[in-house]
Design a protein that fits this description.
InterPro entries: Pep_chain_release_fac_I, Pep_chain_release_fac_I_sf. Belongs to the prokaryotic/mitochondrial release factor family. This is Alternative ribosome rescue aminoacyl-tRNA hydrolase ArfB. Its EC number is 3.1.1.29. By secondary structure, this protein is of the alpha+beta class. Helix content is 47%, strand content 14%. It has a domain of 93 residues: Double Stranded RNA Binding Domain (2-Layer Sandwich). It has five helices and three strands; from the N terminus they run H-E-H-E-H-E-H-H. It is elongated, with a radius of gyration of 27 Å. The protein starts with a helix and ends in a 5-residue tail after the last helix.
Length: 133
Amino acid sequence: MNKEIILSELKFKAVRSSGAGGQNVNKVSSKVVLSFDMMNSSGLSEKEKEYLNEKIANRFTLEGILILNCDEDRSQIKNKELIIKRFLNLITNGLKKTKIRRATKVPKSVKERRIKQKKNTGLIKQSRRKPEI
């Protein structure tokens, strides 16, 4: 993964934010929309593209374009920085290999401790009963 090439391929669009905010919302386009065409990216190898397509396929459109929005801040520049960080985090986490889980045997001491605890709670409950006459 070549970050410089990927960052140069990003497309940004400034849009008016939705929601409350008074007159500022009506005048300023502070919301930033990032779009990234993964299939035509030269910053990712073919294997990386396939791996991303498997891991985060639900985030891509049918054309293979990733679209992210950010309208957390009133500043367009801060929103752009936030969306770039979020994008890079998403891509790097998507490229991480997941560890294969290997089943392990439950240790004997753990089993013994569990049975001892069960017997102890059984004795406590037994001592609460009314005595048989």
